[in-house]
Write a structure and sequence with these properties.
The protein has 211 residues and is of the alpha/beta class. The protein has two domains: 132 residues, Rossmann fold, CATH 3.40.50; 60 residues, Winged helix-like DNA-binding domain superfamily/Winged helix DNA-binding domain (Arc Repressor Mutant, subunit A), CATH 1.10.10.10. The chain has ten helices and six strands. A six-stranded parallel sheet has the order 2-1-3-4-5-6, sandwiched between helices.
């Protein structure tokens, strides 16, 4: 029986090594590559065509979203599972829209990660229980009129994440290699979409929701 070949992509070495140890301890799997950024992952996938790509969503300068989109082009048979620290369904939705087959969080257990890999390898889509529970709760609560992160674009989510980390607009512009004016436009659109009055309200919203 052929082993399921896996490419690990995460900018933290300890996480890659932990995943590799767990997966290589299972006779069904073989980790054939470990990459720290999206560009390297794309090149590796193009040359080696892994069955599964475990892809960290939150990488810089190329995010997991962008890397996933490119991997789908160069190795369409590779099935991608997004991995993130974020439980917000919007991240899972955007990853799946870009062609990923699965999404788990870094709170997911070892057993759930393995289950996700097997499900996706079999051709099924998989969303971890943590995110599914949030989706169910949102569905039950309906539209409460509260700010909804799901309306934000991928770039806007990047901006929100960096605001959460305490970066100024100038620092965000440097980090993302975009103009200061572009950052300010994004911040304005974020406030408008979330129906928040100012940056202080945005910071309070981020802190309140533990984003």
């Amino acid at each position: 029986m052929n082993k399921i070949t896996i490419l690990l992509v995460d900018d933290h070495k300890l996480i890659r090594e932990s995943w590799a140890f767990i997966l290589n301890s299972d006779t069904r799997f073989e980790v054939i590559g470990e990459k720290s950024n999206g560009a390297e992952a794309i090149e590796f996938a193009k040359e080696n065509k892994p069955d599964i790509v475990l892809m960290d969503v939150n990488m810089i300068p190329m995010s997991g979203f962008d890397a996933a989109k490119q991997i789908r082009k160069v190795s369409p048979q590779s099935k991608i599972i997004g991995v993130s620290m974020h439980t917000m369904p919007v991240y899972a939705k955007k990853m799946m829209q870009l062609g990923a087959m699965g999404y788990i969080t870094k709170n997911s257990s070892k057993d759930e990660m393995i289950h996700a890999i097997n499900e996706v390898y079999a051709g099924n889509k998989y969303i971890c229980e943590e995110v599914k529970n949030i989706l169910v709760k949102q569905e039950m609560e309906g539209n409460t009129g509260k700010p909804d992160m799901n309306v934000l674009s991928r770039r806007e989510l990047d901006i929100v994440e960096l605001i959460r980390d305490g970066l100024s607009s100038k620092e965000i512009a440097m980090k993302l290699d975009i103009s200061l004016k572009t950052v300010e436009v994004h911040r304005y659109n974020i406030l408008k979409k979330l129906n928040l009055k100012n940056s202080a309200a945005l910071v309070n919203f981020i802190n309140t929701h533990g984003l």
